[in-house]
UniProtKB/TrEMBL annotation:
Cross-referenced InterPro entries: AAA+_ATPase, ABC_transporter-like_ATP-bd, P-loop_NTPase
Entry keyword set: ATP-binding, Nucleotide-binding, Transport
Keyword Coiled coil carried by entry: no
An MF annotation (GO) of this entry: ATP binding
Protein name: ABC transporter ATP-binding protein
Spans annotated as Disordered: 298-328
Classification via PROSITE patterns: ABC_TRANSPORTER_2 (PS50893)
Pfam families linked: ABC_tran
Amino acid sequence: MIEVEGLTKRFGKKIAVDHLSFQVRPGVVTGFLGPNGAGKSTTMRMMLDLDIPTGGSVRIDGKHYRELEEPVKYIGALLDAKAMHGGRSAYNNLLCLAQSNRIPVSRVNEVLDTVGLTAVAKQKSKGFSLGMGQRLGIAAALLGDPEILMFDEPVNGLDPEGIHWIRNLMKTLAGQGRTIFVSSHLMSEMALTAEHLIVIGQGKLLANTSMADFIQQNSRSFVRLRSPQREQMLDALSEGGFTVVEADDGTLEIDGSSSEEIGELAARHNVVLHELSSQRASLEDAFMQMTAESVEYHAHSGGGTAPTGGPAAPGPQWGQHGDKGKGA
Ligand SMILES: Nc1ncnc2c1ncn2[C@@H]1O[C@H](COP(=O)(O)OP(=O)(O)OP(=O)(O)O)[C@@H](O)[C@H]1O
């Protein structure tokens, strides 16, 4: 369990993390989301005592990181896959880590096997592809067999098979009762991997909720239909008291309804349908809506820091994610 309490980090005048409080519980994969610059990496760095908080605290199983006797046996992390010594082989990188942390040497081959690097274990890691580097970083995180694992953008550089592999790895580790905390800017991937979400924006907590509730509460679900008897269907819907949005392409969108209900209504009025489908919003839709609302709120609250592009302003930032994830 990771407990974050009032965590704050200032860099000069910039508040990167602003009174964050949340817990990351064992047994599930918890996703950590936020637009670029939201403060995710800074929060993770403070969890590992790599950045000193300006205020607040992080507890790992009830203790501060520096109070843990052998931290790598409590918490393993992949923050920067390039942190390995390029002149050493994958095996030797892990061996050094094992020896300096009193971890049995037999663990090195175990984790190399887990991440699929056994065949290249003797190769120098500077020749590794981005994906292989990620796998080596994950092996290092797993070395101490910790109960808590933290991954910052772990699918960065992995091919589809690698992405599938890490998704299953995280779920398996969570299934073993471990605490898994993972950030990713790949929304579709996060939607498939995480059960719980912590969402931050401008250093502040925006949501701490299950994936299903987050999508439900922050997005619109509706039934879409297409009919050659559009006017007749509109009359039937109006009679039934439904709220209808007429889309530009001629389809009708009915909020707060089910496809069963609308299909039966159409049948009662002898209306032919060419399409009837329930539209469930994606995590990305929900995320865009939530961040848009947060920007709107900041603009109205007089903070003076909101983008000027209106409520949709955070959207493009999400896609312009610097170097991270480009190879994924
Ligand atoms: N060492 C530093 N000195 C000054 N400002 C910093 C430093 N580290 C981070 N920041 C600033 O703090 C804010 C949060 O950065 P952080 O890297 O934690 O965000 P992030 O959510 O991880 O973003 P990204 O998804 O782009 O990696 C940003 O505005 C960033 O510019």
